[in-house]
Structure formats: C-alpha cells, structure tokens
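User: I'm writing a tutorial on reading structure tokens. Could you give me a worked example: one chain, its sequence, then its tokens, then a sentence or two explaining what the tokens reveal?
Assistant: Sure. Here is the example chain.
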Amino acid sequence: AIKGFFLGMVLVFLTNSIQAFWLIFFLFPLMASVLVYAKIDFKGEAMMGDVGSNILGVALGISIAWQFSLYPKLVILLGLILFHIYCEFYSLSELIEKNKVLHFLDRLETKG
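And here are its predicted structure tokens:
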C-alpha cells in the first residue's frame, strides 16, 4: 500500500503539477508519517493492515477526484474496474511473481 500510494501521488503531481502543488501542503502530514512508518514496515517489524491501507487509498482517491477532470477520472475508474475483474478470475500474487517489474517493486525495500 505504501509503494502504491507514493507511486500514485507522484503520478498525480507529474500529470497535474501546477494544480496539485497545494496538495503537498494538504497531504504533507500524511506523507511524512507514512515515510517514517515505511522504514518499520519494510523491515518487517510492523504491518500497516487494512485500516492504514484504506486511509492511503482514500487520500489518493480524493487527490485524484480534486485534481482531474471527468475524462481522466473515467479512464482511472475503468482501469480499476478491469483490475478488479482480473483479480476475480486470476491470482494477483501469481501475476506479481511472474512479472519482473512488479516482482521487483514488490520486493523493493522489503526484508527477505
């Protein structure tokens, strides 16, 4: 969740940097605390869990909702729907293990 959150936030800032500049101030406390927590999580000393992951998802979702116009939001929504359909029929864990890029990102900064 942490890696996905920061990847999503980077994409929000890169695609809409002028309008998204104010988000830095709005989300700074969350982003700073997640950065501090990430070190503990990546070492395997703690696990964020569903509540923390949901908070990051809400923050990213609100950022996308505030920053993008209708058509980019629809593209993102379609992508999420297709992702959920894929996960209903196939294993996401298998996809991550078989895909070199996803496997690298999954293992990035993790213990073991």
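What the tokens reveal: The longest helix spans residues 17-42. The chain has six helices and no strands.
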